[in-house]
Amino acid sequence: MRRVSWLKPAWREFEDFPEKVRRHIAFGLDRAAAGDKAGNVKPLHGLEGGVFEISADDRSGTYRAVYAVKLDVDIWVVHAFQKKSVRGSKTPQREIDLIRERIKRLRESLR
Description:
alpha+beta, 3 helices
């Protein structure tokens, strides 16, 4: 079983999620740590392989957490956010850019 590690900004963002959403996302991360994949997980397109997105819905909206599995022995949660786009399920470009930057900085710090 792998350990789930969090970037501090991602953890702070996640703490603001509704309790039900946090439990749902934590379950998906536990499954990933065990080498499995929950039903609410999908690869995040637009980034290199090994980056996945967990989604959970609540009356207040859709929430997502993004984690990377190919950076280290740990699974790294790099971003958590509430999706506010009204244009379908596509992840907004500003979120993709932030994820890409956080992964780049994490990769450099793990060397």
